[in-house]
Amino acid sequence: MSLTFASAAANALPLHVLDMEGFDEWLRAQPPTARTWITASGFQPTTGKSLLVPDSTGAPIMALGGYGSAASRARARFPLAAIAANLPKGTYTLANELPDGDLDTELLGWLLSAYTFDRYTKRTVGSARLICPKGVDAIRIESLAAGEALTRDLINTPASDMGPAALEESARLLAQTFDAAIKVATGEDLLAQNFPMIHAVGRAAAQHRAPRLIDIRWGNTGPALTLVGKGVCFDTGGLNLKPGNSMALMKKDMGGAATVLGLAHMIMSLNLPLRLRVLIPAVENAVSADSFRPGDILTSRKGLTVEINNTDAEGRLVLADALALASEDTPDLLISMATLTGAARVAVGPDLAPYFTDDAAFAAALESSATETSDPVWRLPFWEPYEKMIEPGIADLDNAPSGGMAGSITAALFLRRFASDQRYAHFDIYGWNPSPAPARPKGGVAMGARAILNALPKLLDL
């Protein structure tokens, strides 16, 4: 797959992107032969429809693409990508301005329409190439596409080939590509370096899938941004074993790690003037004689004790140690991303990236950016009255409050205890697209990364 723009070509076919509101007027302005062909073909510019228009010899002289109506575009993302998916193989150039919408976002959608996960079987998609219009920052758009593709590839790869060691190798490759520093604490070294909860969650896995903390640093000047991503490469639920149906998609439980790595790729490839740190606790929540147990009490890196009431609430445990480490550096902005709770998925579904923050300025900048980039988010509250739900009495914190109420909020409150008093946001993402859509095939997907990237200039005064 090539998630890049085509080079200029003499034989590039002009593509007219047409919407329902302006189609009749445009059609009347066409030469009679073209108008007759288009009318006889029954073409209407509904979303994704395409048509090649020939000259008198039968050779195509232009292509038409349906951009739908304003109402249909308000309900779906990347309508230009829907056109790209239906065009014949070839090179195209935009013949007109888009009826509305953000051109950069629509061009990104075109590139992402060529994405396919073909590690295990070969598939051909995205054969229509586009020449980037003049005045558009092609390098930026290609960087976003590459970061998104990295996230998708990592999530889509099954746990057989994406355990903690493989996730580390992916992180090392990223660091090497951008000359970033990386260090990794693994296995028993986690205890020596005071990451006891990461060790406890991952210690039941086979030795070659031992738990680890991945720590990447890049950049020497500017404000400090730290990204923490949940890297649970597979989640059986531990001794609180998941039923089979709930385990089927657990290869995506490292979606937070995949998303922060994709976002890091974007930041570094665009050479943003900041100091970036990426922390990934990478584990497999397996079952063995050494599994941590319900009723255990763990002591975290921060010194807070945690009662284990459900071993299937393990993500917040590994994130807690990583957040405690991140807070010791007091970054200007700390963000955690995790496929953390089913409650978040139930609340907002698979399309929205729910997030938590106490910072009104962060929320305003993020939500404006999310609209601009077609990367939707939804704010949920750090609801203070629920703090008592995560305090079991026998320990400082409860990793899985009983009752099933407000599961995403209580998980976020748990994490906030380890983020200290600083600018912090937590994203409880789903990381999976259950139904194919333009530029968004079924499978792993980044959520919130582009919205964050676009908001960073405001958030960090870049």
UniProtKB/TrEMBL annotation:
Note the superkingdom of the native organism: Bacteria
Q: Where does it sit, as one GO cellular component term?
A: cytoplasm
Any one Gene Ontology molecular-function term assigned to this protein's record: metalloaminopeptidase activity
Q: Where is the Cytosol aminopeptidase domain?
A: 310-317
Query: What protein is this chain from?
Result: Leucyl aminopeptidase
Protein family per UniProt: Belongs to the peptidase M17 family.
Alphabetized UniProt keyword annotations? Aminopeptidase, Hydrolase, Manganese, Protease
A Gene Ontology biological process term: proteolysis
Q: Does the keyword Lipoprotein apply?
A: no
Q: Which Pfam families match?
A: Peptidase_M17 (PF00883), Peptidase_M17_N_1 (PF21337)
Q: Which InterPro entries match?
A: Leucine_aapep/pepB (IPR011356), Macro_dom-like (IPR043472), Peptidase_M17_C (IPR000819), Peptidase_M17_N_1 (IPR048816)
Write down the SUPFAM superfamilies for this protein, in alphabetical order: Zn-dependent exopeptidases
Q: Give a yes or no for keyword rRNA-binding in this entry.
A: no
